[in-house]
Amino acid sequence: MDYNFFINKTSSILLDNGFYEGPVHNAEYWYLKIMPPVLYAIHITDSNNFTKDNNYISYINKLYQKLKDCHCGNLVSLNIIFSTKITAENKNEFFSDFCNFSDSSNELEINPNIHNVYWAFSAYEERLLFPKGQPTKLNGIELYFNWKEYEKSETSSIKIYNNKPYITYAIIVINVLIWAYINLKGGDSAIYNFGTSRQGLLSGQVYRLITAVFMHQELSHLFFNCFSLYIFGRETERILSRVNYTVIYLLTGFLASLFSALIGGGLAIGASGAIFGVIGALAAVSRMKAYKAQLMDYFTLVLYIAVSILIGFSDPRVDNTAHIFGALSGFIIQYLYFKFKHANENNVQK
After folding, report:
1. Which structural domain, as residue segments, surrounds residue 52?
2. What is the pTM of this model?
3. Helix (H, G, I), strand (E, B) or coil at 75
4. pLDDT grade, residue 99 (50/70/90)?
């Protein structure tokens, strides 16, 4: 295996898992990922080019200066040295030649907010090797260099796209425009004609299950739904494909409206069912990929859903049926989609 093959293979996996490319300098490659409160910086280099020179220190210091902008308090610099010579037997000798981990004069080593980690990739054994005193696991990153295990895992079917959240912004704008129309011209007649209701559904007006998702009457209702969509929708759209995200939003909104009509029966409007569907889908990603969405891991997302539903029971105006079935359908649909996709990819590989 040569260095170019290693870089191409590794780069593809890192980009699929939410890292983005940093600078390339003299066969040194950087990959960055913001996961508050930590900014991860993976530095990959060939052993022939590995030096802790001023360029390395300068770039780490630049990243450190940007921690606040990234809403992070710590920088983890993971240095991975590719070598055709290193093996499990000679790894300690290899690292003693290339790294001096006790160099207290290095300004990076004494900064408590910068954490340097050193690994090596053996081209001969095609695996990571870890020097004494270095962690062997780092937030699942070690799996990205164990290609055989990675391709067998469910997480390999989940690609993080790093999209700009244009669809989320578009949905917010549509909600605001329809709210303005209802309050300026449409009034109660628009809600009566396009809101979700059991009577309308039994009359064959299935379109209500979608139109109701984009309708709000009270300003406070509009504000809180758009605010929630801004927080959770942007993150979900960022990590899923736009088609996946759009399907989740519309399908969970449709199902939330359907169960609201069947169980509740009354006239209902609002985007909250679809928003809970988006949160459920985000929880599925977090569960399967151990992915932390900004400050929200899997437990935090599930806790948010549970607390929101419990609060909803105290307010008769809240359509908790839509919330519950929106969240459940979002999680289940996204989870099964990843399972199905992973199973298909494994069959193709075989």
Report:
1. 3-152
2. 0.69
3. strand
4. low
| Angle CA 337–340–342, to nearest 5 | 105
**How many domains does the chain contain in total?**
2
Collapse the DSSP code of 39 into the 3-class scheme (helix H, G, I; strand E, B; otherwise coil) and give the result: strand
pLDDT bucket at 233, cuts 50 / 70 / 90: very high
Is residue 159 domain-resident? no
* Cα dihedral 149/153/155/159 (nearest 10): 70
Q: How many CA atoms lie within 13 A of 6 on its CB side?
A: 25
Contact 320, 312 (CB under 8 A): yes
Q: Give CA–CA dist 175/198, Å, rounded.
A: 23
Share of the chain above pLDDT 90, in %: 46
43 domain residue, yes or no: yes
Q: Which of 100, 122, 152 is the last residue of a domain?
A: 152
Q: Give the CATH number of the domain where residue 233 resides.
A: 1.20.1540.10
Instruction: For tokens 């499990």, name the residue.
Output: 88
CB atoms under 10 Å from CB of 110, counted, come to 10
Q: Which tokens belong to 83? A: 């070598």
My answer on whether 200 and 112 are in the same domain is no
